[in-house]
């Protein structure tokens, strides 16, 4: 065959595929139907408790010689002192930066040599230390895992380095309207006297003010076995985990624990608008919402179904309206930030600056309309969407361990996922309408927009949503000086 023949054949084949694809696109105009969700039988779980109070949850998965561990501590960002926001996340980040017997480089070298993944992080309600390891390396991996948890030294050099990195990241936020909008929304909705009104990762001022002693103090108070749960998933047995956990964590001493912080949010008045000026911005970051619900709410499943219809999927009302119908944005959505206390409900998008007022009109329209009766077909589609999502979240040992974390943090039963589909199916039209009207009071919304004031302010004021307050980015993020 001549040299050019293969290339010509390839081009012909590609053209045929393209024509076939176009023809198929023209014919197949009906969206595929969602099939029934695959049956999910959550794996059995075994509980143990060590003498020092450390709770163990073990899930056996013997398909592969792997194991995942998640150590969950019952304190996160909400436990940060008011003038030290970001302390929980900084403490977690420093755990792997040095111990009494290992430097940060030695920790990194050992994780690489063993083929394990080691990490730590903090959320609002908890901190966690994670380990993924081949079971062949279990003894060495658990020794390293316990070392960074129980014997961190928080080296001054590494503390200074991470603090500098964080300050650099915070400076960069000034040029990110989405971050500015999120922070402005939280601090306006909750106020700086409420933990949720302060940034989880800290501000420039609180980061500069944080000392190594602050980190050591947070770790000493909150990293205690009687405030911790060790989740183990993989090629393990409960007896094996209990024996190894006793060896690794048995010397960890109990401590006196401060009560969890779950303050009530401040009362919300009538709808108001905060405009943060970002001169020259071609887009506007839009956030619309109010205080939502705690994770322990009895309305969890109705709220999940309602939000799926409103803004929790690609085919949701908000996305179809603002993206598909009007072309204001590449994507719009909504969600409840459910925490130990009531977190925020936020609907948001990044919209074309010239269409800011029109986009706000559609946001409010959809928030009102969800309180009307939802058609049966739309309700059924939302419930099926939620049911189809769940099995994919149990595919790996790491997935399973992650799905158990909220059960631990919020005191949910270990058989929670076994009844998930049934409880989703129990949600009816009346439930969706009730929670929409109860939790989405469109007369008490907070609207935050970050964009070019000169271009968007006249149209926003003309909507008459409520009083409009104008701030600069520095008013939201601060100057970086110690309070």
From TrEMBL:
The source's domain of life comes to Bacteria
- Which keywords does this chain's UniProt record carry? Signal
| Keyword Signal among UniProt keywords | yes
One Pfam match: Peptidase_M16
InterPro entries given for it?
Answer: Metalloenz_LuxS/M16 (IPR011249), MPP/UQCRC_Complex (IPR050361), Pept_M16_N (IPR011765), Peptidase_M16_C (IPR007863)
User: What SUPFAM superfamilies does the record tag this protein with?
Assistant: LuxS/MPP-like metallohydrolase
Q: Where is the signal peptide?
A: 1-25
UniProt keyword Signal, yes or no: yes
One example GO MF annotation: metal ion binding
Ranges of residues in domain Peptidase M16 C-terminal: 211-385
Its recorded name reads Peptidase M16 domain protein
Domain named Peptidase M16 N-terminal: which ranges?
63-193
The organism is: Gemmatirosa kalamazoonensis
């Amino acid at each position: 065959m001549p040299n050019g023949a293969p290339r010509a054949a390839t081009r012909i084949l590609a053209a045929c595929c393209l024509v076939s694809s176009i023809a198929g696109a023209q014919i197949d105009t009906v969206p595929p139907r969602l099939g029934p969700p695959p049956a999910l039988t959550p794996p059995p779980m075994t509980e143990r408790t060590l003498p020092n109070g450390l709770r163990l949850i073990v899930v056996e998965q013997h398909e592969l010689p792997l194991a995942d561990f998640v150590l969950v501590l019952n304190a996160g960002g909400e436990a940060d002192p008011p003038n030290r926001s970001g302390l929980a996340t900084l403490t977690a980040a420093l755990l792997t930066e040095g111990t009494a017997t290992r430097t940060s480089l030695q920790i990194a070298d050992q994780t690489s040599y063993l083929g394990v993944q080691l990490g730590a992080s903090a959320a609002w309600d908890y901190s966690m230390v994670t380990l993924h390891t081949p079971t062949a390396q279990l003894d060495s991996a658990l020794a390293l895992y316990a070392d960074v948890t129980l014997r961190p030294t928080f080296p001054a050099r590494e503390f200074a380095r991470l603090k500098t990195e964080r300050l650099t990241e915070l400076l960069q936020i000034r040029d990110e309207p989405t971050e500015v909008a999120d922070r402005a929304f939280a601090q306006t909705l909750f106020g700086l006297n409420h933990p949720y009104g302060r940034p989880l990762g800290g501000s420039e001022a609180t980061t500069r003010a944080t000392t190594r002693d602050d980190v050591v103090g947070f770790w000493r108070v909150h990293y205690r076995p009687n405030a911790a749960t060790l989740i183990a998933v993989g090629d393990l047995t409960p007896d094996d985990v209990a024996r190894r956990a006793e060896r690794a964590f048995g010397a960890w001493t109990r401590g006196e624990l401060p009560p969890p912080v779950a303050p009530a949010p401040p009362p919300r008045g009538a709808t108001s608008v905060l405009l943060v000026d970002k001169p020259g911005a071609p887009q506007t970051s839009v956030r619309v919402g109010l205080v939502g619900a705690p994770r322990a709410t009895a309305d969890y499943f109705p709220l999940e179904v309602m939000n799926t219809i409103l803004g929790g999927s690609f085919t949701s009302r908000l996305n179809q309206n603002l993206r598909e119908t009007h072309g204001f944005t590449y994507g719009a959505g909504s969600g409840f930030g459910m925490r130990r206390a009531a977190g925020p409900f936020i609907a948001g998008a990044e919209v074309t600056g010239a269409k800011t007022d029109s986009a706000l009109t559609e946001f409010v329209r959809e928030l009102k309309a969800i309180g009307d009766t939802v058609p049966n077909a739309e309700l059924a589609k939302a419930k099926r969407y939620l049911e189809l999502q769940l099995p994919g979240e149990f595919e790996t040992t790491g997935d399973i361990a992650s799905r158990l974390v909220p059960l631990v943090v919020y005191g949910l039963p270990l058989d929670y996922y076994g009844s998930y589909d049934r409880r989703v199916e129990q949600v009816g039209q009346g439930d969706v309408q009730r929670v929409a009207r109860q939790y989405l009071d469109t007369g008490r919304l907070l609207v935050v927009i970050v964009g070019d004031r000169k271009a968007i302010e006249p149209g926003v004021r003309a909507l008459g949503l409520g009083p409009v307050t104008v701030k600069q980015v520095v008013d939201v993020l601060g100057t970086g000086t110690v309070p």
